[in-house]
Amino acid sequence: MILLSNSRQLANASPFRFFAGIILLVVASVAPLSLLLKFLSTTIAPATSSDKLTQQARIRYEQSTIIKEYSSAQQNTSKANILLPNQPSASGVDAATKCTFCEAEGGNFNKDMLVPGTGGDTCGSIKAMAAGHLNDSDVCATMQKEERVCCLGPPTIISKHQVKISKSSADDENEKVNQRTIKTKSDSHPPILYGHVHVAKTGGTSLNGIMANRFERVCGHKGYSYDAFQDNEQAKRKEKEGKEIHPEGRSRVFPNTMKEIGFEDCDYISQEDNWQFWTNTFGNGTFHGMKMELHVPCRNRLDHLMSQCNYRRKNITCDAKTDEELFESVKECFVFLLPRYNHALLKHFDVRCFDFKKQFNDYTSYMSGILQTRRFQSTPYVKRDTNRPRNKANECIWENRAVLEKIDKYLLETVPYYQFCNDCMGSENEITATVAEYNKE
User: Rounded to two decimals, what is the model's pTM?
Assistant: First the structure.
């Protein structure tokens, strides 16, 4: 009778309870009646409001803690905290069924973007977590809500510097951050002021010109944004007429003029001056209370030396009788090498480096996620010549390995700029290494 009564309840029960009841009916003849009644009351009977509240609390707890699950694994990434797993996680989730995150075509994924309300996790760490869960799970669905912050469309690329927000009301704050970062990218200043330490013979003239022509509020010794379009149009006309094009006129703004103008409306400052310019102008690494970050181009030191020799029209004395004579010929090639960079900058600023060879693609791509793109751009950018053509066949150091190694050691031991680059390149402070890791995703 009891079993019949419960079988009627099964007709209106959920599928799970229905099949559970069928199983119980089969084993009814061998199981104790008291045990059956107890199991039926908990398994087949409708859930109480208390049960539902418990289940909801469990789900809320899982949702509030999923961002913490990856904290230990996150510490095992590269020291730049950017190398994320592309393979299925240790949990064994198959690639075909793993939780997807920011994988739609056409969007922009910034893995260093800080996601508000997560205790400091980034879009990259959330994507790595997603790979360890099934695509239809509640945990996956919760993580995918952050796609509205991490996976914006092509017009907007977000930098981790653009969002700093306290923990509170995750869903509401995510919506506010999404709106605020779009505004930051389109029509306002980034929260950090950037400086380009223009070291001579590292392509700085071209970089300054390209940045001014492409982005708003670039202020540089070799060009400002506000008139970069017309300046490049004039250079294009000269090129068409077969004239030499040098950094002159609006392509060369002298330091005193820059100081008179001021830097209050600048987001990116490129300066070809002694290192004291940065400390004298921006004090303790801030400007009107705004933090400043310096970017230093790094070039292979031997190649850089020979480019300077070419500019100075000097030759290395490879057949020198003494090391002193050899090193003296090296120093004669220096083009403001020692005054441009000093380790004292590290005491006042956050200083990062980028690869000289990647500055016109990877570096500018990185900055495009921070600076506002100009409405009108003059293309293609016309290079301003600052050096004569170089003939490496006339450079004796490449044919004398002993001399080459001796000079290389001398440069590293005596020039702070080369010491900085030696330490920075390949570290978490190399901007172009970060971009290279983005491109592998």
Answer: 0.59
